[in-house]
Structure formats: structure tokens, C-alpha cells
Write a structure and sequence with these properties.
alpha/beta; Rossmann fold; 21 helices; globular
Length: 580
């Protein structure tokens, strides 16, 4: 069996073990026991780190410690969300380092101590992730809490946090001896203040910084934007910028022209100071180019770390029949040779594991013979988790006439997203109205472990974002790795991964620029009741062929092994582009 490996040439590797790339992200899901993530952005970052280790990339990661995590979700009988602290003990999971770094915030010197998590790749290559911690006796109480809560607090807290990540991250790398890094990758705009740290290093101070200095920084920075939704682009008032960063830094930021409408815009700062900018899917690259027409924006489509997200049953099957898939994910295309009965039997193992967990932890009485639909995303309006419940009578008709089905859902709403919380309550209401004909369960405190169970154990993955707001979406990629096809709106990654009745099915078409709830719900019901359920119950081999193709065509491409290699070739080695 032929194998196409992803060798990193000497252009990317170093003989002395020095680091050439630093990957900055506000959240990184490096381990299920370490709650330093809130959702897709952090999970993607963790998968990126794992694939960098597999590919022996000379890279380090930088994030915050987040001692209180994001939050634990508690849901009552009406679906009312309550947020609980998600405390964890860093000493049990990461290594405390002796190094110290310092950064100025509001005129105070804030001391930073890094912790280290080591991610080991297939060959044993190690990638270190540094988690920055300000909970030190030397700091005042406000500063000690800056690395406590992921996405917590008000605008002042957030800008102070992002100062620790960006400026503090640069200072920490220097304190640790990483003086040889040539590429700084900003995973979303939260870390954009790192450019101030680089300017200070290049110019000697922030006084008198000129455009030539900014050009020198641009040659070393890469920026990935992840969302067309305004909430993903942090903005801070000019007064707050001066208060937190100081007058000199504010003057430098004016030089970068990153303060349109008198607001510090972290996305504009990253755009202005990066030689390579990309969206996270082909369609998202096009949307981002329309949002920021003065900047050349490319696209590198997201992926998922195959070894992390392939379930144990399918991992064993692939080890037996597709040797080499762990080293080279492209080998998953040979899944097309696996007999259909083996695909079905393996999926049933994963489905039984999910049903057992639902019974034990969610008190849900699901039936393994019944078609099971999965949906799990952050609970927010544009993701439309309740679209499937748009017409309950139509759903009942489909269940009676096309075949029975059951639905399992999950996802947290941000503590300040009242619309997202209301969405969960509506799903609870719909579940009560549909019971007992259609069982619906909403998993409480959805996390990485639940994601592994759902993405591998359901029969169909549902995704209903309001077009064109889905940047990429990776949950459907995780499902595809396990032979679970998608029924999804044509947005984000699904524009590239969708082949009708081959890798899954579309909701609506790709003609309308924006989604319409009424039309999309009708299209969803038509496809579910008219195509998918009849095939699942009446043409089982045909449905299993779709499952198999999802692995072979989508799983073999939409993985972070391919994605990280693309970054290495296209972004990290890219020559500076010219501003338009």
C-alpha cells in the first residue's frame, strides 16, 4: 500500500532543537482534564499542537493557564443554564517552571510564571505548550486573577488578559531562552498585542516606532481569522487602550492604523502586522476578503487530529485493514476497500458505547436499532440548534411515515449570551412536546469526552448554521472520521466536503447568499424524511456506502496533519505580501 508522508524539509526542521514557530491562542484544548478551552477554537488549537508534534515541527504553543477554566454547565428540568466554576489543579497536569517574565499593565509591573505541557508526537518529538500564570504573590489581587477565567470579566479584564497573552507571551519566550523564533502565528486576534513585543525587540523601545519597523514585524507574523461574527473581533475604547497599555503603546497602535472609529480593533492590528492572513475554509476566505478588502486573505481549511477523534472501534479496524493511517492520514482513502459489513459492525460498537453513556450519565433510554441524529455546537443564535424543531407536526409525521429517529444534542451558551440560553430552553420545550414518539436528550456540560462519544456514536451529524456565518466547523469532520455522514447547510467546510448522497447531504442549495429559516427547515425535513431515513431503513448497504465514503473522502483530507503541513509550506515559509 503506497504511503504519502508529509516530510518537513530542513527549511522547517532544526538540527539543534531550537524553535522556529510560536503558536499563540487564547484557548488550547491540550488535554480533556485541563479545561483551558471553551469550544471549537480551543479544540482546533489542541489538534494543531498534536499534529505539529506528529510532523516534528519546531514549534511552541503559548496560551493562558485559566485556573478557573471556562465553566461547568448545569441545566435544570426546563433547560435553564447555570454556570459553575471549573477549577483544576495545575500541579497535577502541567510542569511549573522557575522562569519569570514581566509586562506593564496600567503602569504596574505584572509578573508572569509559565507552566509547561509537553505534547509528544508519533515519533516521540515534543512540542511544548506554555501556559502563562499571573497568580503570584508579587502581583496585586486584580492582576493575580488575570489568568483565572477564560473569556471572563469586562472589557478592562479582557484587554488586560490579552496583554498578558500577547506582550507577556513574547516576554515569557525570551525568559525561557527562545530567542530564535522567526514566525509568530496568531490564532485569532486575542494575541495581536504580541506585535508590540516584537516592535520593542526590533526597535529597542516603543518610542519613535516607524513604518519600517512595522514592516519588519510583518515579515514574522501569521494571522488566522476564525469568524465573520462581530463577537469574534475584539474592540476596545481608545481611553481603555491608553489606560492599560500606556501612552507610548497607544501611539504605536495609531501608527499601525488599527483604531478605526476610535476603537482598538484587534483584528485590524493582526491584519496590519501579518505577512500571511488566512480564513479557515475556502468559503470563509472569500467572506473574510469581502469584510477586509484592503488585505490579501488566503484560505487554509481546518481539520481534526485523526488519532484523537477516531473512536477505539474504528481505530482497531483501521489498524487491521489500513496500516499506516496513523502516520499518514491520507491512507484513510483506502477505507473504500473495507467491506460494508465491517463498517456497519464497527459503527454499532461506537453507537452502543454512546447509548450506554447516555443511559448512565444522561438518564436517556435510547434504542440502538433506531436512527440517531447528533447535534452539538456552542449554543448561540446563528448556529440555529433549534431549526430541526421548527415544525413539530412535520417531525412527528416523518417519524411515523419515514421511520423512527431519536436526537441527542449538546453545547454551552456563553454566560452573557441570553439568546443562546433561551435557545437551550426552547429545545427542552420541544423535547417535552415530542416525547415519547421522538426521544430528544440535551447532554449537560458538553466537553471533549462527550464530543468523542457523540461524533462517533450517532448515525447522522446535523449542522444548521445561518449562512454565511459558519467559518469552518469541525464537528462534522470528527463525525466523518467515524463514518458518520453530515446533513448540513452548505457553509464553512461542508462546501468543500459535501458530495450529495456520497459523503452526506445538503440542506438547501448554495445559491442564496443568506439563510432563511422557513426554507432551510423545509429542506431539512424533505431530505430527512424523503431520502435519509428511507435509505437507512430500506437500503442499508447504500447508507453504509455513504458512511464509508465519509471516512475515505472527508477523513483523509479534513485532518490537521494536512492542515499543519499547509501552514508550514504556505504560511510559515511565505514571503511578505504587499498590502493592497
Amino acid at each position: 500500500m503506497a504511503s504519502v508522508n508529509y516530510p518537513l524539509t530542513s527549511q522547517y526542521r532544526t538540527s539543534d532543537g531550537s524553535m522556529r514557530e510560536a503558536y499563540f491562542s487564547m484557548e488550547i484544548a491540550i488535554d480533556p482534564a485541563i479545561p483551558t478551552y471553551s469550544g471549537g477554537l480551543g479544540v482546533l488549537a489542541g489538534d494543531t499542537i498534536r499534529s505539529a508534534a506528529d510532523l516534528e515541527l519546531p514549534l511552541v504553543g503559548v496560551t493562558l493557564l485559566h485556573r478557573q477554566g471556562y465553566f461547568r454547565q448545569s441545566l435544570n428540568g426546563q433547560g435553564q443554564q447555570q454556570e459553575l466554576p471549573d477549577e483544576w489543579d495545575p500541579a497535577r497536569h502541567v510542569e511549573r517552571l522557575d522562569a519569570r517574565a514581566r509586562v506593564s499593565i496600567e503602569g504596574r509591573e505584572v509578573v508572569i510564571r509559565p507552566w509547561r505541557y509537553v505534547c509528544r508526537g508519533n515519533s516521540g518529538h515534543e512540542v511544548s505548550v506554555y501556559l502563562l500564570d499571573t497568580d503570584l504573590a508579587e502581583n496585586d489581587p486584580y492582576d493575580r486573577a488575570l489568568t483565572s477565567h477564560l473569556y471572563g470579566g469586562d472589557s478592562r479584564y479582557r484587554l488586560c488578559q490579552e496583554t498578558v497573552l500577547g506582550l507577556g507571551g513574547i516576554a515569557t519566550l525570551e525568559a525561557l531562552g527562545h530567542s530564535d523564533i522567526r514566525v509568530f502565528h496568531m490564532n485569532e486576534g486575542h494575541s495581536a498585542l504580541l506585535v508590540l513585543g516584537l516592535l520593542k525587540r526590533i526597535h529597542g523601545s516603543l518610542s519613535g516606532v516607524a513604518l519600517d519597523d512595522i514592516d519588519a514585524v510583518r515579515r514574522r507574523c501569521v494571522f488566522t481569522t476564525h469568524t465573520p461574527v462581530p463577537a469574534g473581533h475584539d474592540q476596545f475604547s481608545r481611553d481603555l487602550m491608553r489606560q492599560v497599555l500606556g501612552v507610548e503603546a497607544a501611539q504605536v497602535l495609531d501608527v499601525t492604523k488599527c483604531c478605526p472609529e476610535d476603537l482598538l480593533n484587534m483584528t485590524f492590528l493582526a491584519l496590519r502586522c501579518s505577512h500571511f492572513v488566512n480564513g479557515v475554509a475556502m468559503r470563509h476566505g472569500e467572506v473574510s476578503q469581502g469584510m477586509f478588502p484592503n488585505y490579501p486573505i488566503r484560505a487554509i481549511t481546518n481539520g481534526v487530529h485523526a488519532q484523537t477523534w477516531v473512536s477505539p472501534p474504528f481505530g482497531a479496524l483501521f489498524d487491521e485493514l489500513v496500516p499506516g493511517w496513523r502516520r499518514d492520514n491520507l491512507n484513510l482513502r483506502y477505507v473504500m476497500k473495507i467491506p460494508l459489513d465491517r463498517i456497519r459492525a464497527t459503527h454499532l460498537e461506537a453507537k452502543r458505547a454512546l447509548i450506554d453513556r447516555l443511559g448512565a450519565q444522561a438518564r436517556a433510554d435510547f434504542d440502538e436499532t433506531i436512527f440517531t441524529i447528533g447535534f452539538a455546537r456552542r449554543a448561540t443564535a446563528y448556529k440555529r440548534a433549534d431549526l430541526v424543531f421548527h415544525d413539530l407536526d412535520r417531525l412527528r409525521w416523518i417519524a411515523r411515515n419515514s421511520g423512527p429517529f431519536q436526537i441527542v444534542m449538546g453545547g454551552k451558551a456563553h454566560p452573557r449570551d441570553e439568546g443562546g440560553k433561551e435557545l437551550i430552553r426552547r429545545i427542552y420545550e420541544a423535547a417535552r412536546a415530542l416525547d415519547p414518539l421522538i426521544r430528544v436528550v440535551y447532554v449537560e456540560d458538553y466537553d471533549i469526552d462527550w464530543a468523542k462519544a457523540l461524533c462517533s456514536g450517532v448515525d447522522l451529524w446535523l449542522n444548521t448554521p445561518k449562512r454565511p456565518h459558519e467559518a469552518s466547523g469541525t464537528s462534522g469532520m470528527k463525525a466523518a472520521m467515524n463514518g458518520v455522514p453530515s446533513l448540513s447547510v452548505l457553509d464553512g467546510w461542508w462546501v468543500e466536503g459535501h458530495i450529495e448522497n456520497i459523503t452526506g447531504w445538503s440542506i438547501g442549495d448554495d445559491d442564496a447568499p443568506e439563510s432563511d429559516d422557513e426554507e432551510d427547515a423545509a429542506a431539512l425535513y424533505d431530505k430527512l424524511g424523503g431520502v435519509i431515513l428511507p435509505q437507512f431503513y430500506g437500503q442499508r448497504d447504500e447508507y453504509t456506502k455513504v458512511m464509508r465514503s465519509a471516512i475515505a473522502l472527508n477523513g483523509s483530507y479534513f485532518n490537521t496533519q494536512r492542515m499543519v503541513f499547509q501552514y508550514s509550506v504556505d504560511a510559515y515559509a511565505e514571503q511578505p505580501s504587499t498590502m493592497r
